[in-house]
Recover the amino acids of this structure.
C-alpha cells in the first residue's frame, strides 16, 4: 500500500462514520451544528495523529498482554491535553463541546486505529493513517452537523439561510441525528456503489 | 528489534514507565494552562457583568460577596459602582429546577431590584426548546413580518385566542418585589417559552432567587415575591 492510499483510505473507503460506523457517540451527540461537528472532528484528529505516532514509536517495547491498557493510557493523556488546551485557549468552543471531549478516550476509532494500524506500522505511515481517518471523521461530522443545523434551525455555521421559525426542530434533537445519519449513509453507499 | 516478552516484570515496568511519563506530561500541561483557564473564566464572568449592569468604574470582581439564599444555595453578588455610587448589582444565581441539570444566570438589577438585563452563563436544557431562554426573556424587536400578523389573526379567528405576540415575555424592567414573576400559566406575568414551561419556571425561579437574596442583603421589601419555586403537582409539562 503506498502512502497516498493509506491517507485516502480514511476519507471515503473506510470512513470511520459512514463506512465503519465507529465512534457513534460523539457523532450523534455533538453534531447539532456544523461548528460543533468540525470542532469535535479536529480534536479527534489531533488525538488520532498523536496517539498513532506515539504508539507506533513505542510498540516494540510494549509486551503484547498489556498493550490495550498501555494504548488507553497514551490516548487518555492526549485527550486530557486537548481538553486543558481547549479550555484555556478556545473557551467558547469548550463551552459547547466540553462534555464530549473526555469521550474521545473511549471513541472506538482511536483505539481501533491504534490496535489495527499503529501497532503494526512505522510512525510515518501511522501518522498518515491517523490524519486520513481524522479528516474523514471531521468531514463526516461537519457534513452531518451542517445538514442538521440547516434543516433544524435554518443556519449553516451559524449563518442564517432561512428564518429559524420554519426549521424542523426534530433535526436538532437526538432523533434527527439518527434520521440524518441514516440518510447520509444511504446516499454515501449509493455514491460508492455507482 | 525483537518484541518485549510478556513476563510479569516486563509488563509491570512498561505500564509503570508509561504511567509516569503521561503523569508528568499532564502535570506540565496543567501548569501551563492553569493561568489561561482561570483568565478565560474570569473574562467570561466579567463580560457577563458588563452586559447586565450600567456602566461602572469599580472592580466588581474584587468587591464580590458570596451570599446564601433562603434554600441554602450559594449566590455571588457583584456590586457595580460609579464614582462610589451604587448603580446596579449583578447577581450570579442558579437553580436546580431545570429540565436537566443546573441553570446559571447572571442577573443585573438596579439598586431597587428592577431587572436591567440577564445573561445565561451555563445550562443543559434541550437545544431548541429550553435553550431559547438565552434570548426569550428579553424585549423583542417588533416583527416586521406581514405573514406573521396574518397567521396570528387567523389563529385568533380560529381559536379565539390572544395573538401570540400580545403576551409579555420580557422580564427587563420588571421588579420581582412588585411584579408577579411566575409564568402566566401559573397566574404570573411572564409568558413561558413555547413547549418549555419547566425551563421557563426554572429560569424565573433563578431570577427571583437572585432578587430575594439581594433584597435580604439590601433590606428591600419582599412582600410581593411569590413562590416561583412552588410547582403545582401534575402540571409539570415541559
Amino acid at each position: 500500500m503506498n502512502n497516498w492510499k493509506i491517507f485516502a483510505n480514511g476519507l471515503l473507503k473506510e470512513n470511520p462514520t459512514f463506512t465503519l460506523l465507529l465512534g457513534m457517540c460523539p457523532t450523534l451527540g455533538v453534531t447539532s451544528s456544523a461548528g460543533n461537528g468540525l470542532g469535535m472532528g479536529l480534536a479527534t484528529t489531533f488525538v488520532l495523529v498523536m496517539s498513532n505516532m506515539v504508539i507506533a514509536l513505542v510498540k516494540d517495547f510494549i509486551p503484547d498482554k498489556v498493550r490495550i491498557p498501555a494504548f488507553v493510557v497514551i490516548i487518555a493523556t492526549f485527550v486530557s491535553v486537548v481538553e486543558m488546551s481547549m479550555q484555556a485557549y478556545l473557551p467558547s468552543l469548550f463551552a459547547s463541546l466540553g462534555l464530549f471531549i473526555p469521550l474521545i478516550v473511549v471513541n472506538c476509532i482511536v483505539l481501533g486505529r491504534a490496535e489495527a494500524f499503529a501497532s503494526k506500522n512505522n510512525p510515518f505511515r501511522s501518522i498518515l493513517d491517523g490524519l486520513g481517518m481524522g479528516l474523514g471523521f471531521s468531514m463526516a461530522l461537519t457534513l452531518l452537523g451542517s445538514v442538521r443545523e440547516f434543516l433544524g434551525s435554518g443556519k449553516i455555521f451559524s449563518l442564517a439561510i432561512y428564518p429559524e421559525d420554519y426549521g424542523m426542530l426534530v433535526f436538532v434533537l437526538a432523533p434527527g441525528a439518527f434520521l440524518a445519519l441514516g440518510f447520509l449513509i444511504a446516499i454515501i453507499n449509493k455514491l460508492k456503489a455507482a | 528489534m525483537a518484541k518485549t516478552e510478556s513476563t510479569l516484570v516486563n509488563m509491570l515496568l512498561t505500564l509503570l514507565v508509561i504511567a509516569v511519563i503521561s503523569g508528568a506530561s499532564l502535570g506540565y500541561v496543567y501548569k501551563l494552562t492553569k493561568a489561561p483557564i482561570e483568565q478565560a473564566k474570569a473574562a467570561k464572568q466579567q463580560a457577563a457583568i458588563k452586559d447586565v449592569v450600567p456602566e461602572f468604574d469599580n472592580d466588581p470582581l474584587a468587591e464580590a460577596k458570596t451570599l446564601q439564599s433562603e434554600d441554602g444555595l450559594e449566590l455571588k453578588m457583584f456590586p457595580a459602582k460609579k464614582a462610589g455610587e451604587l448603580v446596579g448589582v449583578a447577581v450570579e444565581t442558579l437553580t436546580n429546577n431545570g429540565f436537566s441539570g443546573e441553570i446559571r444566570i447572571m442577573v443585573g438589577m438596579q439598586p431597587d431590584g428592577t431587572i436591567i438585563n440577564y445573561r445565561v452563563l451555563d445550562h443543559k436544557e434541550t437545544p431548541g426548546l429550553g435553550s431559547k431562554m438565552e434570548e426569550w426573556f428579553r424585549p423583542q424587536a417588533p416583527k416586521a413580518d406581514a405573514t406573521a400578523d396574518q397567521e396570528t389573526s387567523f389563529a385568533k379567528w380560529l381559536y379565539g385566542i390572544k395573538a401570540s405576540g400580545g403576551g409579555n415575555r420580557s422580564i427587563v424592567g420588571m421588579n420581582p418585589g412588585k411584579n408577579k414573576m411566575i409564568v402566566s400559566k401559573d397566574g404570573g406575568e411572564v409568558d413561558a417559552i413555547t413547549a418549555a414551561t419547566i425551563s421557563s419556571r426554572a429560569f424565573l425561579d433563578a431570577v427571583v432567587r437572585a432578587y430575594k437574596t439581594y433584597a435580604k442583603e439590601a433590606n428591600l421589601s419582599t412582600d410581593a415575591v411569590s413562590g416561583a419555586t412552588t410547582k403545582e403537582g401534575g402540571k409539570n409539562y415541559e
